[in-house]
Design brief:
Layout (H helix, E strand, L loop, with lengths): L2 H7 L7 E7 L4 H12 L3 E6 L5 H8 L5 E6 L6 H14 L4 E6 L8 H13 L11
Parallel strand pairs: 1-2, 1-4, 2-3
Helix pairs in contact: 1-5
Length: 134
């Protein structure tokens, strides 16, 4: 069975997904709203680009059971580089799906489940598989 076929057959609720959230001196209220939503549906990792109040941020987010990693970068390496580090981490941890966010992203209810279902639907029309939905 092809990897694409195996992924398409998984129930979205049972898929191995992980969200990557990149921060840099975030509004803590907005960040906590985002991670609270993610915590309901998927594991997540926070990658911080050298925020001044990282200890306060860490204390606020590490209480969430699905926060599986807090990666602290020495300085602001930029959004793209931090996202790439998160993708590499998720791949090394064998997650099937990776969702990418910055600190002020806002999600609708059941966002992860809806995106996984959209991926499954789109895959049914593709012979080669779908790499991204968004």
């Amino acid at each position: 069975m092809k990897a694409k076929d195996a992924l398409a057959e998984k129930d979205p609720a049972e898929s191995g997904s992980c969200a990557v959230v990149v921060t840099y001196n975030p509004d803590v209220t907005a960040l906590l709203k985002l991670v609270s939503q993610l915590n309901k549906e998927t594991d997540f990792i926070v990658i911080d680009n050298g925020s001044e109040a990282i200890d306060e941020i860490a204390d606020s987010i590490m209480v969430y059971e699905r926060c599986v990693e807090l990666m602290r970068l020495d300085g602001n390496e930029g959004l793209a580089k931090a996202l790439n580090k998160g993708i590499a981490w998720a791949r090394a941890e064998n997650y099937d799906y990776v969702f990418l966010f910055d600190q002020d992203s806002s999600l609708c209810d059941l966002f992860v489940r809806r995106m996984l279902a959209a991926h499954k639907d789109a895959n049914s029309f593709s012979a080669k598989g779908i790499a991204a939905i968004g």
